[in-house]
Amino acid sequence: MSALSEFELVGRHLRKDNVRGRADVVLGNGDDAAILRLPPQCDLVVSTDTLVAGVHFPPAFSPADLGYRCLAVSLSDLAAMGAAPAWALLALTLPAAEDAWMEAFAGGFFELADSEQLELVGGNISRGPLSITVTVHGQLPKGQGLRRSGACAGDWIFVTGSLGEARLALDWLDRMDELTETAHRQLYRRYARPTPRLAAGRMLRPLASSCIDISDGLAADLGHLLEASGVGADLCVEDLPLSPMLMQLADARTAQSHALTGGDDYELCFTLPPAYADRTEAIAAQSGCKLTAIGQIRAGRGLRVLRRDGSELDLAAPGYRHF
Amino acid sequence: MSALSEFELVGRHLRKDNVRGRADVVLGNGDDAAILRLPPQCDLVVSTDTLVAGVHFPPAFSPADLGYRCLAVSLSDLAAMGAAPAWALLALTLPAAEDAWMEAFAGGFFELADSEQLELVGGNISRGPLSITVTVHGQLPKGQGLRRSGACAGDWIFVTGSLGEARLALDWLDRMDELTETAHRQLYRRYARPTPRLAAGRMLRPLASSCIDISDGLAADLGHLLEASGVGADLCVEDLPLSPMLMQLADARTAQSHALTGGDDYELCFTLPPAYADRTEAIAAQSGCKLTAIGQIRAGRGLRVLRRDGSELDLAAPGYRHF
Q: What is the pLDDT of residues A4-43, one digit of tens each?
């Protein structure tokens, strides 16, 4: 059997019919391109992300988790726009064609895809150093996409979920056996299988003045939002939502630092005009995702991180460094 | 300066405003995702392709040619569907952040993008082994996309342009200095900067019964078309369009073999019902691209390649092997 056939063979795991066909897919995976039909009065939202072995994930990362994670990371971008997931394309570069690896990878990928009614409509497998590029497509009512720009002085700043645990998981990656099995599983999952905040993003669409997903760390990504909006912000570091596990496994200073600058959280950071601040409880209840006010937008430029006593933190290292 | 900032810096070459904004781009490159507006009564056509250094192109390939080629290869898929190019996303993985490399790459990419009114609406740069994934989006009138399926017994089989030169260029890559400068330039260009047959694809849309682009070699890709259509075909090997350069630099047997099984041609292979066979001259004239009848679809299965004397060729190696 030629090597090409081997890659074609493992690629079959990506064509299995465990995703029910969406009505808006005219022609799916298998031709030169997919043909898709956007519902009337909808805008199309598109984003692409690459994960490289040894850079964005440990080389020995479980293929099932990798399949889940590469899609979750891309879907988080759709969540930040308030879009509903629809279609994905997958470009997979593999050092060798291994059937078991591919089956596990597809299992993780489709677990998340199926739960979000997302259909894989195209892709290809190449030989080369392990790397994955996922391009996701979402839909939203015309003109209603959330953006990084739009935050106004006086708006409250919120985040979904809790911060810093993904970074904590990386600290503990080599000594997970020191943790209880429950703690191990919970912590590893926060890094390996982030939850894209799609439901929260969609509910925020008519309310939030701006939104971004936190992939590079809160300080770095909120910084991008402030720059795009042309405003500044004050955060209160004691208001950051820290998980019980983060507070238990890290000292207070490390916990705050992870919450402020740790990457890979894939929570949303958004701004709400004061008039909508009372809507957050209902959104949290319906989306099943905690929302926490962490600060306020102000005129001017730059991000100030304050302690409750009014003193200012120095953010020497804003954000996770990819490289 | 941190390494991340270096990558951000080189990434600026991809945001330059040398592409006039398309009216259907609501929000372009720079947010978590792009927001795009498909014109009414249009279907969306999407395809993704990856080029890996050392697998799909020589590691020392010129960055300007690489920028051009990675987009050309993806646009060829849109051509095969009869779609008009609209938007692209670029995921670039680079071993180092080199400004001069990036500027040259962007130069090649935008040379082709601009000439096809295509806008780059998103992308990212990662550190890692050199590899490029381009996702392209095209538009076509609802329900009118060309497919691999649809060929019927009696339809004529055509190809655009000429075949085998890209494969010939690979043969000569290490001894280009034995060629005249004109021959060198012409041959190298056929491999480095293939011409996606977009105009021909669009004109064929209402006429052709099926279409595919030839990336893996005529025999392999026509084989895919036959399988998708559930038919067989007879080709006449003496009818294959060989360029004067191919006939000059290769013996007759090698020239035929390259035309049949050499990859990277990025020509279109399509089938036409006999009633439309007289339309090809007008399409060739308007698209500036030669069309040649090379055989005919028949009932049954499989591809037979015949000599003019009626004897059959044995296709031991159908198509370029990627691996």
A: 567 777 788 887 554 568 999 999 988 999 999 999 999 9
Chain B residues with CB-CB distance to A4 below 8 A: 321-323
C-alpha–C-alpha distance, residues A94 and A97, integer Å: 7
The answer to whether residue A179 neighbours chain B at the CB level (below 8 Å) is no
Which residues does chain B have within 8 Å of residue A142's beta carbon, measured at their own beta carbons?
37
- Inter-chain touch B4–A322, beta carbons under 8 Å: yes
A48·B123 Cβ contact <8 A: yes
> Which positions in chain B touch A123 (Cβ < 8 Å)?
48
Q: How many CA atoms lie within 13 A of B159 on its CB side?
A: 27
Q: What's the ipTM?
A: 0.93
Quick: pLDDT tens for B185-231.
Answer: 889 999 999 999 999 999 999 999 999 999 999 999 999 999 999 99
| Amino acid making up residue A35 | I
A31 CB near a chain B CB, below 8 Å? Answer: yes
Partner-chain residue, chosen from B91, B140, B323, that has the shortest CB–CB distance to A3: B323
Can you tell me the distance from the alpha carbon of A141 to that of A272, in angstroms, rounded to the nearest whole number? Answer: 20
Residue A98, SS3? coil
Spatial CA neighbour of A256 closest among A156, A157, A158, A167: A167
- Residues B203, B205, B209, CA angle at the centre, nearest 5°? 125
pTM: 0.93
